[in-house]
């Protein structure tokens, strides 16, 4: 059985460390944590994720695999129901996560893309097709975990917010232009390596309002990079049900690391738009539509990933760097940092 070690906090930000099976339900976690934190269990207790923007998300008692479902800077809290409003995020949640030491400019862009693709491929390879079904229909119906899928989806958000964080935390205009150019080149290499999950995450990060509003930075970017980014934005344009992306993917041969949020969107749309049973009979048309998405997953990894490595100048350092990226996932904080760099024109 797989166990996880994680912290559970209470309203005064004291915490306990638990070691529980990954399949432990929220109900079990909150009572074990309450006992350790000496919170009276006769009160109705809630297990809550407090996010970096202060938002509180209450877990249902039968929710499982809680630690893997958290947002990037989310924390688990236990609280009596009456004290829910007293839960506030930790000061560390409002800051950038501590990535592995290193500066993005230390590494060649091709090296970053290569090792990111290997890392993301390993995460994607671990996702079982059934996890998409469990995620779509609700894990509690099956008593099954979707930890591998959770981690892969979290990776998408990590890359997206890493892009924004690195740009808004670069004070010098000339260096910021260099970082912006590096991310556009990184997206180019990820697309070349068919790591579409990372490609889409990078482009969405560059489209984030905290980055897109930096007009001085974009103006100093060479025109060929601005043109390239415009092409990338068109490729992930959601109009006509992401037609541009789907046409592009249809031309590719495996191995491919797909844009997982879109596959889950397809599954959810199919599930919510069609009844599972009609007149007491299984709706096989719905089953075929769900199976089509699962076949896409199977197709993407029907061949093993084999890439020619770039010159191994700093393999260990790059691997370490891309496995733990520095991120801020609070949009208000990112916007404030962006405003400091380039105040709004009056």
UniProtKB/TrEMBL annotation:
It comes from the Eukaryota. The keyword Secreted does not apply. GO terms for cellular component: plasma membrane. Residues 5-83 form the Ras-associating domain. One of its GO terms (molecular function) is guanyl-nucleotide exchange factor activity. Gene3D superfamilies: Phosphatidylinositol 3-kinase Catalytic Subunit, Chain A, domain 1, Ras guanine-nucleotide exchange factors catalytic domain. Keywords: Guanine-nucleotide releasing factor. Residues 108-344 form the Ras-GEF domain. GO terms for biological process: Ras protein signal transduction. The keyword Ligase does not apply. This is Rap guanine nucleotide exchange factor 4.
């Amino acid at each position: 059985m797989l166990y996880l070690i994680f912290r559970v906090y209470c309203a005064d930000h004291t915490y306990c460390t638990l070691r529980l099976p990954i399949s432990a339900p929220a109900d079990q976690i909150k009572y074990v944590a309450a006992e350790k934190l000496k919170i009276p269990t006769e009160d109705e207790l809630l297990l809550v994720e407090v996010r970096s923007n202060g938002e509180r998300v209450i877990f249902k008692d039968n929710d499982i695999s809680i630690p893997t479902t958290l947002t990037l800077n989310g924390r688990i809290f236990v609280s009596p129901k009456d004290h829910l409003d007293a839960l506030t995020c930790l000061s560390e949640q409002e800051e950038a996560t501590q990535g592995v030491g290193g500066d993005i400019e230390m590494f060649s862009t091709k090296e970053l893309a290569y090792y990111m693709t290997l890392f993301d491929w390993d995460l994607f390879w671990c996702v079982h097709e059934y996890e998409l079904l469990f995620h779509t229909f609700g894990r509690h119906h099956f008593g099954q975990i979707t930890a591998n899928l959770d981690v892969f989806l979290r990776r998408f958000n990590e890359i997206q917010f890493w892009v924004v964080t690195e740009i808004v935390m670069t004070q010098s205009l000339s260096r910021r232009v260099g970082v912006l150019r590096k991310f556009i080149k990184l997206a180019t290499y990820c697309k070349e390596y068919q790591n579409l999950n990372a490609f889409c995450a990078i482009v969405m990060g560059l489209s984030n309002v905290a980055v897109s509003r930096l007009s001085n930075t974009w103006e100093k970017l060479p025109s060929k990079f601005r043109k390239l980014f415009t092409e990338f934005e068109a490729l992930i344009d959601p109009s006509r049900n992401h037609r541009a992306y789907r046409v592009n993917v249809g031309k590719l041969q495996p191995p491919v690391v797909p844009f997982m949020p879109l596959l889950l969107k397809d599954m959810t749309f199919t599930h919510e738009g069609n009844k599972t049973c009609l007149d007491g009979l299984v709706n096989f048309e719905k089953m075929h539509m769900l199976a089509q998405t699962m076949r896409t997953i199977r197709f993407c990894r029907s061949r093993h990933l084999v890439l020619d490595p770039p010159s191994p100048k700093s393999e260990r350092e790059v691997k370490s760097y891309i496995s733990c990226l520095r991120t801020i996932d609070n949009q208000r904080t990112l916007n404030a940092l962006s405003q400091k760099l380039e105040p709004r024109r009056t």
